[in-house]
Design a protein that fits this description.
Helix 1 links the parallel strand 1 and strand 2. By secondary structure, the chain is an alpha/beta fold. It has a single domain, classed as Alpha-Beta Barrel (TIM Barrel). Helix 1 runs parallel beside helix 5. The strands form 2 sheets. It has an 8-stranded parallel sheet with strand order 5-2-1-10-9-8-7-6. It contains 12 helices and 10 strands. It starts with a strand and ends with a helix.
Length: 273
């Protein structure tokens, strides 16, 4: 079965009620997991960066914008309980060492190494020390960098995901053939696809090429505030993606050419020799 991950990321805009609406939408659409991103703002950004002017719903500085996008401890406790009640699991991408500790308190099935962080070996070591199975995205990475992260993390990696880190990603740069490349080079891992296109077609297409996990950004409305909203999939698209993924996974079959029992009456009727 292909695992379907609905990436909420920061599309909740710091509002736990929006987060819960997204969780409900992902669950009703057929996703297996929802995923968040967790940052400790003062560890990720310099003071100079945080003091820069930036207009947002939360104020006029980058600090106000970045802090406005974060959910609190209480919010995540509520999210954890809400996910259990509706019957969907969740995990996150930690962007700093404190966020690793924050996420592990909830005993997630996975931690996700974001594409931007696969060369941050201090963070990778912290994630490795948790013993939690890891999902690694490979956007913005060449073969040498992928080899580096896989060598460092070893068999703690469960899924290695192909992706292109542009938001939204142009069709000419989706490069789904990399799924086949990764499957040949890393047979010890399950290979998947992280979608950054606003189109849904590439997600089921990735399954036809052998993806065992699909990840796609979701939103309630692509016109909402936020850098990831335009590259995300809306409620109707979520349902279609999950349905198409399941159908393509079923249709992919086992690759062995044979005559199905359902074909026998047609064979008897039409084949004369």
């Amino acid at each position: 079965m292909v695992v379907k991950v609905a990436e909420i990321g920061i599309n909740h805009n710091g509002d736990v009620n929006i987060a819960k609406n997204l969780i409900n939408t992902a669950k009703s659409g057929g996703a297996d997991y929802v995923k968040f991103q967790k940052r400790t703002v003062d560890l990720i950004y310099s003071r100079e960066e945080l003091e820069k002017p930036r207009q947002s719903p939360w104020g006029t500085t980058t600090r106000e914008q970045k802090e406005g996008l974060e959910l609190s401890q209480e919010d995540y406790v509520e999210i954890d309980s809400f996910c259990k009640n509706v019957g969907i699991k969740w995990f996150g991408s930690p962007w700093d060492v404190q966020s690793v500790d924050f996420l592990t308190q909830f005993n997630p099935d996975y931690l996700k190494v974001a594409s931007a962080l696969i060369t941050d070996f201090g963070l990778l070591l912290k994630m490795k020390e948790t013993g939690i199975p890891l999902i690694v995205s490979t956007g913005m990475s060449d073969e040498k960098e992928i080899e580096g992260v896989t060598t460092f993390l070893g068999d703690q990696i469960e899924y290695l995901l192909h992706c292109t880190s542009t938001y939204p990603c142009d069709s000419s740069e989706v490069n789904l053939s990399c799924i086949t490349t990764l499957k040949k080079k890393y047979p010890q891992y399950k290979i998947g696809f992280s979608n950054h296109s606003s189109q849904i077609v590439f997600v089921p297409a990735s399954v036809a090429l052998g993806a065992e996990m699909t990840e796609f950004h979701i939103t309630l409305d692509r016109a909402m505030y936020g850098s990831d909203q335009a590259a995300s999939i809306g409620p109707q698209g979520i349902f279609r993606i999950c349905s198409y993924v399941d159908q393509v996974d079923l249709a992919r079959g086992d690759g062995q050419k044979k005559v199905y029992d359902s074909e026998l009456p047609v064979l008897k009727k039409l084949r004369k020799h």
